[in-house]
Each structure stands twice: as structure tokens, then as C-alpha cells.
């Protein structure tokens, strides 16, 4: 018997459990997505000095709660970054970018002292990329050229039609990649001319994962 009646209840539980890992009164980096939205609603409890948002949607949500959103260029670092994931494995490597905010998410995470990932257990996987495609943010003029390179890596890239990122770029969702070495593949794809970044978060992985399971909350670290 599950403690949670719905997937949203799991997401909400993970968000609530993350609060104790986040700074009170500090500057927090905030990610994007449905699980993070539950967390944002709880952030007034932390009485933050300010927040850095990974997307325009997150910035708007924070502002609506009276939380000051500051430009990342005006902060030297972040006490913590909190975000969800589309997939996460036992190494705490992740695939992110389902909401097309992967580049800003990766940038904000890079200056944080701690990366807290909040997910429900449907996002916990044995191997990245088997179920969820890998998003790659691409400069529009390079879309076809990048797609051809991704095919040589064994992937099946599909243009995410109708989506333009906050940076004015497009997304290729790459299916059927065999992600056995996430760090090396992240580097390889990022070195393709025209790629802004890809959705593998392995070079800058999570420090802790807060996972909502049917039995309750589990705090997991990398194996």
C-alpha cells in the first residue's frame, strides 16, 4: 500500500523533504519543472535573501511569491541549487531538459556549493537514456548538421517542433543512445559545433537525491 495516492503527492513529499537541505536566508538556485513548482510554493518558509532562476517560468513563479530574483552575474556563488530530473541513476548522473531549460539549469548548478535533486521514484533508472530521450540544445542554423553527428553516435534525433528555448535555440531529442559512460558522452556531444549543451548532468552531478517512493522518502547519495 503506497503512502501516496497520486504522482503529484509523491512530488510534493519530495519537495517538502528537500527543505532541510536548503539554506535559510541565503541565495538559492532554483530549477524548473513540476516537482520544483511544488518546492517553490514552500520556499517562503526559508526566508531567502534572493534566488537565481533557471528559466523565465521559474522566475515568474518566484516573483509571484514575493521572492527576489537576481541575475546570476550579480552573485559570486550559490549556497545550493535544487532541481528535478527526467532520469537519475545510482551515480546521481541525470538526464534533464524535458522542459527545455537544460542550459540555464546547468549554468546555475555550476556555481552552487550543493546540488539537491528532488524526484519521485519513477525517475530512478538503472541506465540513462533507455526510456527518456536525451535533449540537446542547438543553435538553429546547426540543427541538421548536429543531427547528422548525433546519428553517428548511435542516436535517433528528433526535432522538438514548436519549442524555442529561453535562449532562442531549438531542441533535438535523441532516442536510442546507449549511455554507458555518461561523463564521456556529455563531453563528446558538447564538443559538436552548434551544440549549446546537452541534457546529461554527469560532470556536475547531484550531491544528494531526495526520492519519494511508495514507502516514503529516501535520501540517496552516489554509489
Summarize the structure in words.
- It is globular and about 50 Å long.
- With 223 residues, it is an alpha/beta fold.
- Helix 1 packs across helix 2.
- A six-stranded mixed β-sheet has the order 2-1-3-6-12-13, sandwiched between helices. A four-stranded antiparallel β-sheet has the order 8-9-7-10, sandwiched between helices. The chain has a three-stranded antiparallel β-sheet with strand order 4-5-11, covered by helices on one side.
- The model has no long low-confidence stretch (mean pLDDT 96).
- 26% of the residues lie in helices and 24% in strands.
| Total count of strands | 13
Radius of gyration: 17 Å
Distance between the termini: 28 Å
Q: Percent helix among the residues?
A: 25-40%
User: Spans with pLDDT under 50 lasting ≥5 residues?
Assistant: none
- SSE order in H/E notation? HEHEHEEEHEEHEEHEEEE
Strand order of the largest sheet: 2-1-3-6-12-13
The largest sheet is: 6 strands, mixed
Fraction in beta strands:
15-25%
Number of helices: 6
Mean pLDDT: 96
* Class based on secondary structure composition and strand pairing: alpha/beta
Q: What gross morphology would you assign? A: globular
Quick tags:
four-stranded antiparallel beta sheet, six-stranded mixed beta sheet, alpha/beta
Offer a concise description of the structure.
It is built from 6 helices and 13 strands. It has 223 residues and is an alpha/beta fold. β1, α2 and β2 form a beta-alpha-beta unit.
Blueprint (SSEs and pairs):
Layout: H1 7-18, E1 27-30, H2 34-42, E2 50-53, H3 56-64, E3 80-83, E4 87-88, E5 94-95, H4 102-109, E6 115-120, E7 134-138, H5 143-152, E8 156-159, E9 170-175, H6 182-190, E10 195-198, E11 200-201, E12 208-213, E13 216-220
Parallel strand pairs: 1-2, 1-3, 3-6, 6-12
Antiparallel strand pairs: 4-5, 5-11, 7-9, 7-10, 8-9, 12-13
Helix pairs in contact: 1-2
Amino acid at each position: 500500500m503506497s503512502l501516496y495516492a497520486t504522482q503529484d503527492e509523491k512530488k510534493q513529499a519530495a519537495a517538502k523533504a528537500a527543505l532541510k537541505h536548503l539554506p535559510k536566508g541565503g541565495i538559492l538556485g532554483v530549477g524548473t519543472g513540476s516537482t520544483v513548482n511544488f518546492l517553490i510554493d514552500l520556499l517562503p518558509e526559508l526566508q531567502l535573501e534572493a534566488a537565481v532562476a533557471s528559466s523565465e517560468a521559474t522566475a515568474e513563479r518566484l516573483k509571484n511569491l514575493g521572492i527576489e530574483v537576481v541575475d546570476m552575474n550579480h552573485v559570486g556563488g550559490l549556497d545550493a541549487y535544487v532541481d528535478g530530473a527526467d532520469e537519475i541513476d545510482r551515480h546521481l548522473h541525470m538526464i534533464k531538459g524535458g522542459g527545455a531549460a537544460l542550459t540555464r539549469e546547468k549554468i546555475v548548478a555550476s556555481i552552487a556549493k550543493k546540488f539537491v535533486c528532488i524526484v519521485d521514484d519513477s525517475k530512478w533508472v538503472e541506465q540513462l537514456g533507455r526510456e527518456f530521450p536525451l535533449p540537446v540544445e542547438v543553435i538553429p542554423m546547426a540543427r541538421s548538421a548536429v543531427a547528422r553527428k548525433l546519428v553517428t553516435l548511435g542516436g535517433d534525433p528528433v526535432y522538438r517542433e514548436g519549442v524555442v528555448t529561453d535562449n532562442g535555440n531549438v531542441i533535438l531529442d535523441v532516442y536510442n543512445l546507449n549511455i554507458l559512460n555518461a561523463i564521456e558522452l556529455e563531453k563528446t556531444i558538447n564538443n559538436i559545433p552548434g551544440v549549446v549543451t546537452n541534457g546529461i548532468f554527469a560532470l556536475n552531478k547531484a550531491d544528494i537525491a531526495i526520492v519519494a517512493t511508495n514507502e516514503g522518502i529516501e535520501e540517496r547519495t552516489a554509489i
